[in-house]
Specification:
The structure holds 2 protein chains of 2 kinds. Chain A is of the alpha/beta class. Chain A has 5 helices and 15 strands. Chain B has a single domain, classed as Aldolase class I (TIM Barrel, Alpha-Beta Barrel). Classes of the chains: A alpha/beta, B alpha/beta.
């Protein structure tokens, strides 16, 4: 595995792509080692806000050493990031966690499911996955303020759900699957916990594998603080209790292995 | 220039250590910091059996600091001996094992299992605010602290450091109780009990409701308590609480600490320990300090 490192990187460009949703490209050599499903820790310049913000990697441009993150402004850290212009310093640590097991999708009918701010890592997956029998991207938004849908369309057929029904199917990603009678052998997903719970249940009933990316409050991002644990069905190799560290053992888990 | 310090007969190449619970057993940070450079690695608390810890969320950011309520999750002393000690023995640094328990017998069991292990000192955690039994309960009453210190001191083969809680009215009473019971050194401060409310969900921000506050926000309290303790007891003190840079560490040394530990700031900047060590050397150069021990407790 590549060595993690903290880097003082620079913003290549940034724009708002939907209300409160920002799209930032960063010049960093971490782009070379980043895998779909991994995340970076982004540090604020505001020293009263100490802890890094874990943000999933949306895309990389290895040729130009650039990495893309798409994030929602949720508090004072992300508000600060949203103001960064081209050339602004951005302190990052990465690449963290483990990616999606892309090789498991070979020859399989694959669902890539993203909900809200869980959509960005699915773009990295859609770009990287090779030799799947088919790929259906199923994404859920709050309303008609879509983001990354056009990027995703380049790599797979896309199905959209919106909570208010303004675009695509009204409801959730699960409603889309039901309505369009979509079928898969394997699922990769990232999004809010209710969505992940529904996917875990769905995959269990269908007897197919689902790999889900989890999120939790974390401090260090490297496995030391034990802040971001998830209950596991089996005794975890590191903790020797039923807790795994999302930052280092995850964030992607086989849904069967975690109690959510 | 000599950065060596000695605590209870144990010599450290420099005074910079890691605060328990912020550095695991060093594995996670070995990618960032050469552990050979550290005065000591102080491990995450170890109990006699594995502990699950608290539900999530376990951490929250606060202004200039953070709250944690991990609940001393740990794999238990047997795994620790098998896995973590051999890892740390690869490095030329001192090993201080933090010991936690729910009862005196729990602590004693861990201390006895570590007796024949190649560890340099034991830090006894009687100050964790996030566990229901044990922890802080032993560290808030001088009589309780005296009794548990005495019990552990009888069984311990290595010098012991009682880690004190700041959640007391008079830190000097606690320091004196630990000294009177035979503790070889004391370390302070553990985290300060705090709470954060999630105003959007209208509930506690931590699943445990309350947690321990750490980070730069608590540093002045820690420096004050180290100073008070240093004037109350003769045993050496390891000072900690919000150390982010060499200047912070030097404050602790001048206030009376023989050693210093970097805690929450490891999470913010994984290179903090190495930067503190370098900065202390630069300070010694700047003021022509030959022996670091010259400045310990220099502020009277």
């Amino acid at each position: 595995m590549e060595q993690k490192k903290k880097e003082f990187a620079r913003v290549y460009k940034q724009q708002q792509i939907a209300p409160g949703i920002y799209d930032m490209w960063i010049n960093t050599t971490l782009a070379r080692q980043a895998k779909p499903g991994q995340f970076i820790s982004v540090y604020t310049q505001d020293k009263s806000a100490l802890l890094p913000r874990p943000i999933s990697i949306c895309e990389t441009d290895v040729v130009n050493d650039r990495l893309r993150i798409v994030y929602r402004v949720a508090g004072k850290g992300t508000t600060e990031f949203s103001r960064y212009k081209t050339g602004h310093r951005v302190d990052i640590l990465g690449a963290l966690g483990n990616g999606f097991p892309l090789e498991k999708a070979e020859g399989k009918h694959l669902f890539l499911i993203g909900g809200g701010i869980g959509i960005p890592p699915m773009l990295a997956v859609a770009k990287a996955v090779k030799n799947a029998a088919s790929i259906d991207v199923i994404v859920g938004y709050r309303d008609k303020e879509l983001f990354l849908a056009e990027d995703l369309e380049k790599y797979a057929s896309i199905h959209i759900a919106t909570e208010d029904g303004s675009v695509g199917t009204k409801g959730t990603v699960m409603n889309v699957i039901e309505e369009k009678k979509l079928e898969a052998d394997i699922i990769f997903a990232c999004g809010p916990m209710p969505m992940l719970r529904a996917i875990k249940k769905y995959a269990g009933e269908k007897g197919i594998a689902a790999y889900i990316s989890l999120e939790e409050r974390m401090a260090c991002g490297v496995g030391a603080c034990l802040g971001c644990v998830v209950k596991t069905t089996k005794i975890d190799h590191h903790s020797h209790v039923n807790n795994a560290r999302i930052c280092t053992d995850g964030p992607v888990y086989n849904a069967e292995d975690v109690e959510i | 220039m000599n950065t060596k310090i000695t605590i209870a007969g144990v010599t450290f190449k420099n005074p910079v250590m890691t605060a328990s619970g912020t550095f695991g057993s060093g594995m996670e940070y070995a990618e960032f910091v050469d552990l050979n450079c550290l005065g000591a690695v102080v491990t995450k608390g170890v109990a006699n059996v594995p502990w699950e810890g608290n539900p999530t969320p376990r951490v929250q950011e606060t202004y200039g600091g953070m709250l944690n309520a991990i609940g001393l999750q740990n794999p238990g002393v047997d795994v620790f001996i098998r896995r973590d000690i051999p890892f740390l023995k690869q490095y030329d640094t001192r090993i201080i094992v933090n010991v936690c328990g729910q009862s005196v017998s729990d602590y004693v069991e861990v201390v006895e299992k570590l007796a024949e292990q190649p560890v340099d000192m034991l830090e006894i955690n009687v100050s964790c605010p996030n566990v229901k039994h044990g922890g802080i309960a032993f560290g808030q009453d001088p009589k309780c602290l005296f009794d548990i210190t005495k019990e552990i001191k009888i069984k311990a083969k290595q010098p012991i450091i009682m880690k004190l809680s700041p959640n007391v009215t008079d830190i000097t009473e606690m320091a004196k109780a630990a000294e009177a019971a035979g503790s070889d050194a004391i370390s302070l401060i553990n985290t300060i009990t705090g709470m954060k409310v999630d105003i959007h969900k209208k509930t506690f921000a931590l699943a445990n409701k309350t947690g321990g506050l750490s980070g730069p926000a608590i540093k002045p309290i820690a420096v004050r308590m180290v100073y008070q303790a240093a004037n109350a007891v003769k045993i050496p003190i390891i000072g900690m609480g919000g150390i982010a840079c060499a200047e912070d560490a030097i404050e602790f040394l001048l206030a009376g600490a023989s050693g210093v530990a970097v805690g929450a700031m490891n999470f913010v900047n994984p290179y903090t320990t190495a930067e503190v060590i370098k900065g202390i050397e630069e300070y010694m150069c700047q003021y022509n300090i030959e022996e670091l021990t010259e400045i310990i407790g220099a502020v009277k």
